[in-house]
């Protein structure tokens, strides 16, 4: 619609939202990873006796599972941000309608919200990764920094298409389905907790097509310091492509919803 | 001046709204499309208080959304502030204020934050927005509530806050979709008073309503809409003069009697309307009409003589009462 980029005008709105929620975010994103790392990485990991050959190059199960969990958490964080809140801003509080009654376009509205989500994922991932650091699973500083950026990419790669999905829904009943049939299977079977080669050839092939596997594998390579350039580029390309297509779709669907 | 091109090119200076043959349909396929606005011509000049009067489903809100540049025109010409909403939407929206029918306030933010954050959408600097927000809170008498959560406000206060919000960009034209629907009488009068004050500041005001008294109180000029078309236009007084009589005599008889009593009084008034609960007799002198009814030996259970209102105009034009 418009050619001017006005999304920065929404910064104050999202800052106010962030001010209201950041304390809760930091506390929960500190406690949850700590519990996960202790339970899965240390205690459950104590039963896992496998070498780097079986753990995609990780020297211990803790080192294997921690980067997987951070990537998986980057995904789960955004599911909550682009389902009920999007529906609420369309239907319940109609906040989007007040935004587009001003010079702002739907594209500005979507981009600003994705910007806020990127900030949130970045915050959650930073806290998770500092907890990980205390357990000594990092191999290099730059690897960790790039891995942190990858978390933001994973977040947007999921947030944008789900935003598009939510924008066209009549009511919220489909959300519990995408949580149960989308988020949880991805969380469990995308290589965060065990190498996907354990799934058997057919399912392994399927798991390698899912966006979370690309995110998990990329994060793990960066954290453990066994980066394969070509594979990494494929991962980044996949996630970037999903983020861009998803953003386009979200703008398209929200426009069709709001501009009638 | 015969073709639309010439007509649209000749928007006079100070024209706030110019619509010619304006239509709006909903639905993707032509055969299943619902036509909400079926070709209307409207012109609103700078500084006017203009109203769209009509029942629910008359096409008022669809028209307002096109005027607010958030709903594409299906066909016909529309110019807002001399600009085309299809190409100049953001510019139009930056110069008008919109007070929607349903509140779109952010209930989790404070009263003041709702104003300041909204002001930022127009690209206004923070200090400027803050200053304007305080002035506007004063204007809508919500200064003491500045720190309150929107959720804790009454319906009337929320509506006043929405009006304040729609003024944050100092709009040249304010659009209000049913500004007092759902408010109690006292709250409505406060809203009317505030809207009336804007007139002195030269703001153009366009509102939709299905309340006669609101249209009579606020509008210099109005159009009556029914089923997507304009069925009459003029000032409230002109409309009453042209489409009704000076006075109306309302007669209530027993339930079910109105239909067969109507012929007995038909010759006593210029026009008689039969409603389920009463007869309306239109004449220049209502008391005289009532006397003549009594002379015929008809004694209504209750009677009332009043001045004609826009409700009578609407009834005359459409054969239906407005609020159904």
Descriptive notes:
The complex is a heterodimer of chains A (260) and B (324). With 260 residues, chain A is mostly helical. Chain A has helices at 11-44, 61-81, 84-92, 95-100, 106-134, 141-167, 173-189, 201-207, 211-224, 229-258. The longest helix of chain A has 34 residues, at 11-44. Chain B has 2 domains: 11-25 and 34-234, Rossmann fold (3-Layer(aba) Sandwich), CATH 3.40.50.300; 245-307, Alpha-Beta Plaits, CATH 3.30.70. Chain B has helices at residues 4-9, 60-67, 85-95, 111-121, 126-139, 155-166, 185-200, 212-218, 236-243, 258-265, 286-295, 310-318, and strands spanning 15-26, 34-45, 49-53, 75-80, 96-99, 173-177, 204-209, 221-226, 229-234, 247-252, 271-274, 279-283, 302-307. In chain B, the strands form 3 sheets. Chain B has a 6-stranded mixed sheet, with helices on both faces. Chain B has a 4-stranded antiparallel sheet with strand order 11-12-10-13, with helices on one face. A 3-stranded antiparallel sheet of chain B has the order 2-1-4. In chain B, helix 7 (185-200) links the parallel strand 6 and strand 7 (204-209). Classes of the chains: A mainly alpha (260), B alpha/beta (324).
Characteristic key phrases:
heterodimer; A: 260 residues; mainly alpha; globular; B: 324 residues; alpha/beta; Rossmann fold; Alpha-Beta Plaits; 2 domains; 6-stranded mixed β-sheet; 12 helices; 13 strands; disordered N terminus
Rg calc of chain A:
19 Å
Estimate the helix proportion of chain A, in percent.
Answer: over 70%
CATH topology of the largest domain in chain B: Rossmann fold
Total number of distinct structural domains of chain B: 2
What is the straight-line distance between the termini of chain B?
Answer: 41 Å
Task: Explain the layout of strands and helices.
The complex is a heterodimer of chains A (about 260) and B (about 325).
Chain A: H1 11-44, H2 61-81, H3 84-92, H4 95-100, H5 106-134, H6 141-167, H7 173-189, H8 201-207, H9 211-224, H10 229-258
Helix pairs in contact in A: 1-2, 1-5, 2-5, 2-6, 2-7, 2-9, 5-6, 5-10, 6-9, 6-10, 9-10
Chain B: H1 4-9, E1 15-26, E2 34-45, E3 49-53, H2 60-67, E4 75-80, H3 85-95, E5 96-99, H4 111-121, H5 126-139, H6 155-166, E6 173-177, H7 185-200, E7 204-209, H8 212-218, E8 221-226, E9 229-234, H9 236-243, E10 247-252, H10 258-265, E11 271-274, E12 279-283, H11 286-295, E13 302-307, H12 310-318
Parallel strand pairs in B: 3-7, 3-8, 5-6, 6-7
Antiparallel strand pairs in B: 1-2, 1-4, 8-9, 10-12, 10-13, 11-12
Helix pairs in contact in B: 4-5, 9-12
